[in-house]
Amino acid sequence: MKIAVLIGSIRQGRQSHKIGYYLSQQLNDKHHEVEVLDLATISLPMLEERVGKHPQLPDAALKMSHQLHTADAIILVTPEYHGSFSGVLKNAMDYFSAEFHKKVIGVVGVSAGKFGGINAVQQLSQVVINIGAYCVPTRLLVPEIYGAFNEKQELVNEHTLRSSQKFLDEFEWLASAINGKKMATAS
Ligand SMILES: Cc1cc2nc3c(=O)[nH]c(=O)nc-3n(C[C@H](O)[C@H](O)[C@H](O)COP(=O)(O)O)c2cc1C
Q1: What DSSP string describes 62-110?
Q2: Is residue 99 within 6 Å of ligand 1 at its C-beta?
Q3: Least CB-packed of 39, 100, 147, 168 within 10 Å?
Q4: Which residues lie in coiled coils (predicted)?
Protein backbone atom coordinates (compact mmCIF):
# COMPACT_ATOMS: atom_id res chain seq x y z
CA MET A 1 0.00 0.00 0.00
CA LYS A 2 0.95 3.62 -0.40
CA ILE A 3 0.93 5.30 3.01
CA ALA A 4 1.36 8.97 3.93
CA VAL A 5 2.60 9.83 7.42
CA LEU A 6 1.70 13.42 8.30
CA ILE A 7 3.78 14.86 11.13
CA GLY A 8 1.98 17.67 12.95
CA SER A 9 4.74 19.14 15.11
CA ILE A 10 7.05 21.90 13.99
CA ARG A 11 8.11 23.19 17.43
CA GLN A 12 11.79 24.01 17.96
CA GLY A 13 13.11 21.06 19.96
CA ARG A 14 10.12 18.96 18.93
CA GLN A 15 9.92 15.27 19.81
CA SER A 16 6.77 13.98 18.07
CA HIS A 17 8.49 13.53 14.71
CA LYS A 18 10.52 10.65 16.21
CA ILE A 19 7.55 8.32 16.42
CA GLY A 20 6.42 9.43 12.94
CA TYR A 21 9.75 8.47 11.39
CA TYR A 22 9.85 5.26 13.44
CA LEU A 23 6.41 4.16 12.16
CA SER A 24 7.43 5.08 8.60
CA GLN A 25 10.49 2.86 8.87
CA GLN A 26 8.42 -0.01 10.25
CA LEU A 27 5.97 0.28 7.35
CA ASN A 28 8.85 0.52 4.86
CA ASP A 29 10.26 -2.69 6.30
CA LYS A 30 6.89 -4.30 5.59
CA HIS A 31 7.27 -3.24 1.95
CA HIS A 32 4.75 -0.44 1.95
CA GLU A 33 5.52 2.67 -0.05
CA VAL A 34 5.74 5.38 2.60
CA GLU A 35 5.85 9.12 2.15
CA VAL A 36 6.52 11.32 5.18
CA LEU A 37 4.77 14.67 5.03
CA ASP A 38 6.66 16.55 7.71
CA LEU A 39 5.05 19.93 8.29
CA ALA A 40 8.39 21.24 9.59
CA THR A 41 9.72 20.99 6.03
CA ILE A 42 6.58 22.13 4.19
CA SER A 43 5.93 25.86 3.86
CA LEU A 44 2.18 25.79 4.20
CA PRO A 45 0.73 29.25 4.93
CA MET A 46 -2.22 29.81 7.24
CA LEU A 47 -5.32 28.74 5.37
CA GLU A 48 -6.96 31.41 3.26
CA GLU A 49 -9.01 29.00 1.15
CA ARG A 50 -9.24 25.30 0.43
CA VAL A 51 -7.99 23.18 -2.44
CA GLY A 52 -10.42 23.59 -5.30
CA LYS A 53 -11.60 27.02 -4.12
CA HIS A 54 -8.38 29.02 -3.82
CA PRO A 55 -7.65 31.05 -6.97
CA GLN A 56 -3.87 30.75 -6.42
CA LEU A 57 -3.28 27.73 -4.25
CA PRO A 58 0.17 27.73 -2.59
CA ASP A 59 2.52 25.26 -4.29
CA ALA A 60 3.02 23.39 -1.03
CA ALA A 61 -0.73 22.77 -0.75
CA LEU A 62 -0.92 21.60 -4.35
CA LYS A 63 1.92 19.14 -3.78
CA MET A 64 0.41 17.89 -0.52
CA SER A 65 -2.95 17.47 -2.18
CA HIS A 66 -1.37 15.13 -4.72
CA GLN A 67 0.55 13.23 -2.05
CA LEU A 68 -2.57 12.73 0.08
CA HIS A 69 -4.74 11.88 -2.93
CA THR A 70 -2.42 9.12 -4.06
CA ALA A 71 -2.05 7.63 -0.58
CA ASP A 72 -4.15 4.54 0.16
CA ALA A 73 -4.05 5.26 3.89
CA ILE A 74 -2.73 7.98 6.18
CA ILE A 75 -1.19 8.25 9.64
CA LEU A 76 -1.53 11.52 11.55
CA VAL A 77 1.00 12.27 14.28
CA THR A 78 0.23 15.04 16.75
CA PRO A 79 1.65 16.37 19.99
CA GLU A 80 -0.80 17.34 22.72
CA TYR A 81 -0.90 21.12 23.13
CA HIS A 82 -3.24 22.67 25.71
CA GLY A 83 -5.43 19.58 25.84
CA SER A 84 -5.85 19.22 22.08
CA PHE A 85 -3.98 18.42 18.89
CA SER A 86 -1.63 20.92 17.26
CA GLY A 87 -2.86 23.99 15.43
CA VAL A 88 -0.38 23.44 12.64
CA LEU A 89 -1.93 20.05 11.91
CA LYS A 90 -5.47 21.44 11.89
CA ASN A 91 -4.36 24.23 9.55
CA ALA A 92 -2.87 21.68 7.16
CA MET A 93 -5.90 19.39 7.30
CA ASP A 94 -8.31 22.23 6.59
CA TYR A 95 -6.81 22.69 3.12
CA PHE A 96 -8.07 19.26 2.09
CA SER A 97 -11.27 17.29 1.95
CA ALA A 98 -11.59 14.83 -0.96
CA GLU A 99 -8.00 13.79 -0.26
CA PHE A 100 -9.18 12.14 2.97
CA HIS A 101 -12.55 10.80 1.86
CA LYS A 102 -13.01 7.07 2.53
CA LYS A 103 -9.35 6.69 3.52
CA VAL A 104 -8.24 4.74 6.56
CA ILE A 105 -6.54 7.12 8.99
CA GLY A 106 -4.49 6.09 12.02
CA VAL A 107 -4.08 8.63 14.82
CA VAL A 108 -0.96 8.95 16.98
CA GLY A 109 -0.66 11.21 20.02
CA VAL A 110 2.52 12.26 21.81
CA SER A 111 3.14 13.86 25.18
CA ALA A 112 5.98 14.59 27.52
CA GLY A 113 3.84 13.37 30.42
CA LYS A 114 2.27 10.03 31.23
CA PHE A 115 -0.96 10.22 29.24
CA GLY A 116 0.38 9.98 25.69
CA GLY A 117 -1.69 12.80 24.26
CA ILE A 118 -5.05 11.19 25.00
CA ASN A 119 -6.95 14.49 24.70
CA ALA A 120 -5.27 15.31 21.40
CA VAL A 121 -6.05 11.85 20.06
CA GLN A 122 -9.71 11.93 21.12
CA GLN A 123 -10.28 15.29 19.48
CA LEU A 124 -8.31 14.45 16.35
CA SER A 125 -10.27 11.21 15.96
CA GLN A 126 -13.47 13.28 15.96
CA VAL A 127 -12.07 15.44 13.16
CA VAL A 128 -11.09 12.33 11.20
CA ILE A 129 -14.70 11.15 11.34
CA ASN A 130 -15.90 14.59 10.25
CA ILE A 131 -13.75 14.55 7.11
CA GLY A 132 -15.31 11.30 5.95
CA ALA A 133 -12.38 9.04 6.73
CA TYR A 134 -12.28 5.75 8.61
CA CYS A 135 -10.49 6.22 11.91
CA VAL A 136 -8.58 3.18 13.10
CA PRO A 137 -10.18 2.34 16.49
CA THR A 138 -6.81 1.50 18.03
CA ARG A 139 -5.00 4.80 18.48
CA LEU A 140 -1.34 5.02 19.43
CA LEU A 141 -0.52 6.97 22.59
CA VAL A 142 3.16 7.78 23.11
CA PRO A 143 3.82 9.00 26.67
CA GLU A 144 7.08 10.30 28.11
CA ILE A 145 8.45 10.99 24.66
CA TYR A 146 11.69 12.53 25.92
CA GLY A 147 12.89 9.13 27.17
CA ALA A 148 11.26 6.96 24.52
CA PHE A 149 14.10 7.16 21.99
CA ASN A 150 17.86 6.91 22.53
CA GLU A 151 20.54 9.12 20.92
CA LYS A 152 20.53 6.91 17.82
CA GLN A 153 16.81 7.64 17.46
CA GLU A 154 15.96 4.03 18.34
CA LEU A 155 12.69 3.38 20.16
CA VAL A 156 13.68 1.99 23.55
CA ASN A 157 10.46 2.24 25.57
CA GLU A 158 9.13 -1.33 25.88
CA HIS A 159 5.51 -0.27 26.30
CA THR A 160 5.60 1.98 23.24
CA LEU A 161 7.34 -0.74 21.23
CA ARG A 162 4.46 -3.11 21.97
CA SER A 163 1.69 -0.54 21.47
CA SER A 164 3.25 0.63 18.19
CA GLN A 165 3.17 -2.91 16.81
CA LYS A 166 -0.45 -3.36 17.86
CA PHE A 167 -1.36 -0.03 16.30
CA LEU A 168 0.41 -0.87 13.02
CA ASP A 169 -1.22 -4.31 12.87
CA GLU A 170 -4.68 -2.76 13.25
CA PHE A 171 -3.87 0.04 10.81
CA GLU A 172 -2.66 -2.39 8.15
CA TRP A 173 -5.60 -4.73 8.70
CA LEU A 174 -8.25 -2.04 8.28
CA ALA A 175 -6.41 -0.26 5.45
CA SER A 176 -6.00 -3.44 3.44
CA ALA A 177 -9.64 -4.42 4.04
CA ILE A 178 -10.94 -1.04 2.84
CA ASN A 179 -8.54 -0.92 -0.09
CA GLY A 180 -9.49 -4.46 -1.06
CA LYS A 181 -13.13 -3.41 -1.10
CA LYS A 182 -12.31 -0.34 -3.22
CA MET A 183 -10.41 -2.46 -5.74
CA ALA A 184 -13.20 -5.02 -5.91
CA THR A 185 -15.77 -2.27 -6.48
CA ALA A 186 -13.63 -0.57 -9.15
CA SER A 187 -13.10 -3.72 -11.22
C1 LIG B 1 2.10 24.93 23.77
C2 LIG B 1 2.27 23.60 24.45
C3 LIG B 1 1.21 23.08 25.14
C4 LIG B 1 1.32 21.81 25.74
N5 LIG B 1 0.22 21.28 26.35
C6 LIG B 1 0.27 20.01 26.80
C7 LIG B 1 -0.90 19.38 27.31
O8 LIG B 1 -1.98 19.94 27.33
N9 LIG B 1 -0.80 18.10 27.74
C10 LIG B 1 0.39 17.42 27.71
O11 LIG B 1 0.41 16.24 28.10
N12 LIG B 1 1.51 18.00 27.22
C13 LIG B 1 1.48 19.26 26.76
N14 LIG B 1 2.62 19.85 26.23
C15 LIG B 1 3.89 19.12 26.20
C16 LIG B 1 4.02 18.20 24.99
O17 LIG B 1 3.46 16.98 25.37
C18 LIG B 1 5.50 18.06 24.60
O19 LIG B 1 5.91 19.22 23.92
C20 LIG B 1 5.85 16.82 23.82
O21 LIG B 1 7.24 16.80 23.64
C22 LIG B 1 5.19 16.59 22.46
O23 LIG B 1 5.23 17.69 21.61
P24 LIG B 1 6.46 18.16 20.64
O25 LIG B 1 6.35 17.45 19.34
O26 LIG B 1 6.22 19.62 20.54
O27 LIG B 1 7.75 17.84 21.33
C28 LIG B 1 2.54 21.11 25.66
C29 LIG B 1 3.61 21.67 24.96
C30 LIG B 1 3.48 22.90 24.35
C31 LIG B 1 4.64 23.45 23.56
Answers
A1: HHHHHHHHH-SEEEEEEE-BTTB--HHHHHHHHT-STTTTT-EEEEEEE
A2: no
A3: 147
A4: none
- Calculate how far, in angstroms, residue 186's C-alpha sits from the geometric centre of ligand 1: 43
For residues 14 and 21, the answer to whether their CB atoms sit within 8 Å is no
For 100, residues 6+ apart whose C-beta sits below 8 A from its C-beta are 68, 74, 93, 128, 131, 132, 133
Pairing type for strands 134-135 and 104-110 reads: parallel
For residue range 141-162, what is the model confidence (pLDDT) as tens digits? 999 999 999 999 999 999 999 9
Cβ-contact 108, 139 below 8 angstroms: yes
- Could you tell me whether strands 104-110 and 33-38 are parallel, antiparallel, or unpaired per DSSP bridges? unpaired
pLDDT at 168: 98
Give yes or no for a contact between 76 and 8, defined as CB atoms under 8 angstroms apart.
yes
Enumerate domains of the chain plus CATH numbers: 2-186 (3.40.50.360)
User: Which of 137, 77, 75 has the alpha carbon at shortest distance from 100?
Assistant: 75
Distance 80 CA to ligand 1 centre (A): 5
